Amino acid sequence: AVWFILTLIGLVRLRSWARYSILVIAGLMAAFGGMSMVASFAMPFLMPAMPAAGNQPAADPGMMRIIFFVTGAFYGVVTALGVALLVYYNLAKTRALFLLSAPVSVGPPNTSTGRPRPTAITVISWLYLISGPFCLLYVFLPFPTFLFGFIMYGLTAHCVYAILGILTFAVGYGLYRLREEARIAVFALSVLCPINMAVLLTPWGARQFHTYMDAFNASMYAGQYAAPNPFASTGAIIFFSVLVMAGLGVILWLLHRHRVAFTPAPPPPPLPSYSEPLEGLTP
Question: What share of the chain is helix, strand, coil (3-state, %, to 5)?
Answer without folding.
Answer: 70, 0, 30
